[in-house]
Amino acid sequence: MQVFCQTGTALTPIAFASAGAAALVAPLMLAGFALQTAGLSRAKNAAHAVFGHLFLGAICLTVFWVCGFAVAGGRFFLSAGGAVDGASLASFFTQATMLAVAASVPLGALTERWSLRNLYCYGAFAAALLFPVFARWSAAGGWLAQLGFTDLAGAGTVHGLGGLCALAGVLVLGPRLGRYGKNNAPLPIPAHNVPLALLGCLVLCFGWFVFIVSRALGAGEYGRAMPAGAVAGLAAAGGALTAAFCVKARTGKPDPTIVANGALGGLVAVSGCAACVSTATGWCIGAIGGALVFVCVQRLDRWRVDDPVGAIAVHGAGGLWGVIATGMFANGMDGVRGLFYGDPAQLGAQLLGILVLATWAFGGSWVFFRTLDRFIPMRVMAVVELEGLDVPQTGVPAYAGLQHMSEETSSHPRW
Question: CATH second-level architecture of 13-379?
Fold first, then answer.
């Protein structure tokens, strides 16, 4: 079982259909990310949040087509001569879907203070190097895959990578103004539209189910495709219930945003092994993922790591847990056996994958953001951050009549 199909090989109609289904849900998942980010942001930054996701997708798709797909082990589409074979396009389509999801994760963590100019450069970096390099290592034929690393639907390759990149970006960018008070105590910055954020979560869940089923089909697990979808649904339920229990025990009320992120954390965690675990195991993996989301959100706040949407906890912690869970609980249904099913070497391969992923995704992203920040500042001016990014950065407010610009803000460059 591998994440990506190989180019230049004959693919069955089912494999082609799975690639098409995976790619068609990409806009749906981007919409979910955009809705969640906008809803959990303040009203003065909502247009900036949604536009960032929209335009990032355009940048990533273009750059991945120009050079990223070749870096990931595919063909160079701009090379002279020869028609593009269908297998190459199917692989490109599938990988572009995963790239779009991975690249979108940091936008939520860096929202409300990230300049668009810097974001554009990040999109090119993610599509040309960050995602393709690790995808090549972990895909069939890559050195990590040859050592046994496996990841069905991107728990590490997509979500872990995006979450670690988000962590690096937040550490370079710093928290939002007013997020922490005296003695570094966190101060609440209320979301402007919680129902919008919850709608984004539901859209993401729907896209996730389709994507996991399509990846099981693409990996040749035809008999496990629908069961993988059922496992994913149960993992989401386990994550939501556990997150609700944790936040209820702490605050006395089930915070809807934490519960939603708990469901997403469960889905992230089971993404790597949905086709090779039982329903009970899938629920437990998701439940642990939901608990991790709650714990990580609390810890990150104490450490002044400001993540408005919880992307680092959901995708970073949840994704890494999902990679480990595969090495522990894979039951051999797809040829992969974990520690508890007689193959401790599989857990070793998964832990090696985490080490490589952390080094590349976090280390590489931190170096990139630090270097780029010297030439194109990551953060907008303080006055822009205080008055809102919508009009100064995009030219239009999310809500007419809400935002008024000072003379200093009106002269801020938009592009």
Answer: Orthogonal Bundle (1.10)
